[in-house]
Amino acid sequence: MKTTISIPDELYRRVKAKSALLGRRVRDVTIELYERWLAEGAPVSSTQSAEQWLEEWLRLGQETLGESPAGPTATEILARDRRRLDPR
Amino acid sequence: MLTLDANTWIAAFDGQDRFHPDSTAFLRAVARHHLRLHGPALVILEAACALARRARSVAAGQAALERLRAHPALVLHPMDARLLSVAQDLGLRGLLRGTDALYAATAALANAPLVSWDDELVNRAGAITPQQWLTKHA
Prior knowledge:
The complex is a heterodimer of chains A (88) and B (138). With 88 residues, chain A is an all-alpha fold. Chain A has helices spanning 9-21, 26-39, 47-65, 74-82. In chain B, 64% of the residues lie in helices and 9% in strands. Chain B has one domain (2-137): Rossmann fold (3-Layer(aba) Sandwich).
């Protein structure tokens, strides 16, 4: 769709100059920044919510891995996966 | 602001992990400091796959993936042309693995230091460990 917005002159001049320098269209840069902003999600509402999230994460870990089979831990699995072809 | 490696998240999740106490203390301190956290979109995939393999359970990986995606302060950076371009530059100059370069690029673009338990990220990409961060900031 097409839309019209007002942007401060100096800001637009700088955006246009940088876009030209990078060989990109202002339209493409604008879309990229909109998508990036949307992907950021909601702002942090409070420390409490992050702390609550962590307690839930720890509880989920206990529930999920409490009965898990013996073997390498998740970080060992990740490290091994990242370097599976390295010399041993 | 900080950029977190997948290993920081999964060490806190896994109570048997040798990094579990420090990762948990680190994430608690980060929450207390109201810090915004960053990661390449890949971080959720890496964490969920490692946890599914650890538990040998699809459901475990899925639950971890959904929970991590719901973190209120975690910004996931899409693997777009900009991220890949910076990763290419940092990866080639620092002789990094491709995945490590994505973490380094995310840290650079977000201007948020990288925190990891991975020796190679510490030695080659300027990451600090959760323990080192705690020593300075807790």
